[in-house]
Amino acid sequence: MKIQIENERKFRAIKGPIGGLTDGAEIVQWYVCVKPAIRVRVENFRDSFLTIKIKLAPGVNLELEGKIPFFLRKGLVRFQKHRKVRKTRHKIGRLEIDVFSWELEGLVLIEFEQKFSGEHFEIPVNFLVKEVTGDARFSNHNLCQLDKIPERWRCQDVSRGL
Fold it and tell me: Tens digits of per-residue pLDDT, 107-135?
């Protein structure tokens, strides 16, 4: 199991070329517990991970994560099969662009994992974003409890105009 400190900045995409994104990883995350956040994540319908996240400060988390076998994943998710998020994760450099689906259809979040405070990065030029670092509404363990997103959170897909 690996242990690390996450220092991330998070942005909600208001406009972006979502339809033009390719080669993403399909992710389903089930939350066994939300405080602390204990989740089971499956990537591309193969690899399963158990993660415990403990919030240290806004945008800063202690994360413990390890790969788990299929039988353990199946046993853990059966208790919380409705408390989940589905998304496709696209990577552009060190940015992770999460395009949510199902109940959260239309929500797009962009995350940047800082290696040190004040590290420089750039949001892709075709995206208009609003920073939501530290806004608990946009943590996956809170998003998993929604039946749908507010209309104002929906990202406008501008890929057709490019």
Answer: 999 999 988 777 888 998 899 999 999 99
Helix-strand-coil split of the chain, %, nearest 5: 20, 50, 35
Distance separating the N- and C-terminal Cα atoms of the chain: 43
Q: What residue segments make up the domains of the chain, in order of their start? A: 2-161
Tell me which CATH homologous superfamily contains domain 2-161.
Hypothetical Protein Pfu-838710-001 (2.40.320.10)
3-state class of 105 per DSSP? coil
Give the tokens for residue 70: 């299929």
DSSP string of 17-84? -GGG--SPEEEEEEEEEETTEEEEEEETTTEEEEEEEEEEETTEEEEEEEEE-HHHHHHHHGGGTTSE
pLDDT in tens, 58-90: 778 899 999 998 877 776 766 666 688 999 999
Q: Which of 17, 2, 7 is nearest to 129 (CA)?
A: 17
